[in-house]
Write a structure and sequence with these properties.
Elements (H helix, E strand, L loop, with lengths): L1 H79 L2 H5 L2 E8 L3 E2 L2 H12 L4 E13 L2 E13 L5 E15 L2 E17 L13
Parallel strand pairs: 1-6
Antiparallel strand pairs: 1-2, 3-4, 4-5, 5-6
């Protein structure tokens, strides 16, 4: 009889311990599962954040490249005397200061056309420093220009452009431009200018 009671008590203790072990195992498994789910969720959020960051970087680089192309067209249109194309690079209310202030791109084009007509010029924009914030941007350019004047003579200049830009309907425009000149070397007046000869 005593042996049976001892065995019963032993079985109960074993059953209790087994139950506790089982409960602990379930809790542990649940904790691991929860931790795994949390880690998986964190990893998923990290992937999304990383993808968003890459997309933003690519968009920023694309915007910078578009603005660099915009300024390149500015220099090219001046040198090739594409006056309508030059005016179209600006917003209609753009403010420009090249040493003389203009309250619209139409004023700039009219004055530039009068000054140089079809006289040969050469402009370069170097070392662009562009900062984009949403649909607006700022840019600084080192510049050098070589300008013949319609009346003869001219100058070789150096300085910086300080520009502002705006994206409208997916396209970038110049909204403001200030030319700060550091130096201007006068070119000798050799008489009426002659356009450069084209070679094949």
């Amino acid at each position: 009889m005593t042996s049976d009671r001892s065995k019963t008590r032993s079985d109960r203790r074993f059953s209790k311990k087994a139950g506790m072990v089982t409960a602990a195992a379930l809790l542990l498994a649940g904790g691991v599962a929860t931790g795994t789910a949390a880690a998986s969720s964190h990893h998923s959020h990290g992937d999304q954040a990383g993808s968003a960051s890459i997309a933003a970087t690519v968009r920023n680089l694309a915007d910078i490249q578009d603005i660099e192309k915009l300024k390149a067209r500015y220099f090219q249109d001046v040198d090739t005397k594409q006056w309508a194309d030059l005016q179209a690079l600006f917003t209609p209310d753009a403010h420009i200061n090249t040493g003389q202030e203009f309250n619209s791109p139409a004023e700039l084009v009219k004055a530039t056309k009068t000054l140089i007509a079809d006289a040969p010029t050469a402009h370069q924009g170097l070392l662009p420093n562009i900062t984009v914030k949403g649909d607006t941007a700022t840019g600084t350019w080192v510049m050098e220009d070589y300008v013949n004047l319609k009346a003869g003579g001219g100058f070789h200049g150096y300085g910086q452009y300080h520009d502002t830009y705006k994206r409208i309907d997916g396209r970038w425009y110049i909204t403001g431009s200030v030319l700060e000149r550091y130096r201007m070397d006068t070119l000798p007046d050799t008489g009426p200018y002659r356009a450069a000869q084209k070679t094949n």
